[in-house]
Amino acid sequence: MEPVKTINSQVLPIAMKDIDTDLIIPAQYLTSISRGGYGENLFRRLKDGDPNFAFNQPKYKGAQILVADDNFGCGSSREHAVWALRDAGIKAVISKSFADIFYNNSAKNGLLLVTLPAEVIDRILVEAAAAEVYVVNVDLAGQYIQLPGDERHCFTFDDFRKYCLLNGLDDIEYIRSYEQDVQAFRAKQQSYFQPVLA
Description:
This protein is of the alpha/beta class. The protein has helices at residues 21-24, 44-49, 80-87, 100-108, 118-130, 159-167, 171-176, 179-192, and strands at 6-14, 65-68, 92-95, 112-115, 135-139, 144-147, 151-154. The chain has a single domain (6-192), classed as Aconitase, domain 4, CATH 3.20.19. Helices cover 35% and strands 17% of the residues. Helix 3 links the parallel strand 2 and strand 3.
């Protein structure tokens, strides 16, 4: 998994509440047996139904930070929603709140989720939509977001998940990072229980 440390990018605003996982990646596109290939159908219904939708606008091309309203990632527990966002180049989502399962899936797949106060999110959504360029810097190590004009907002983040993201570790890779310690423990146990020969 790619380490997540700082993300400096144009913001892609979606001023919608309750964006569920079926809206992020509709069920009919869950056909791949791998994590790749979902990005092209990210928000497919919104992209097809609204030519002014943010993902259709050239000024947001290459944006790595998505900002949305409340309760992002609600609905089903499909991990594909996270895969689709990552496959489309989104590295961080900033919102007022996130659904619990989506939050956990994101942390395990290298997608940084940041919660900020409602009034800050509302302002970012308005300003990012109005500006031709609206760049934000997300610093996971320092746990702050820097808006245009050097305005900073701190955010809280789980220590374990922070360590994993900073080091590019999913749950399995985290366990494997302690392989030498595990092997040393096993060797010690085996020598301890070695039968004494007469």
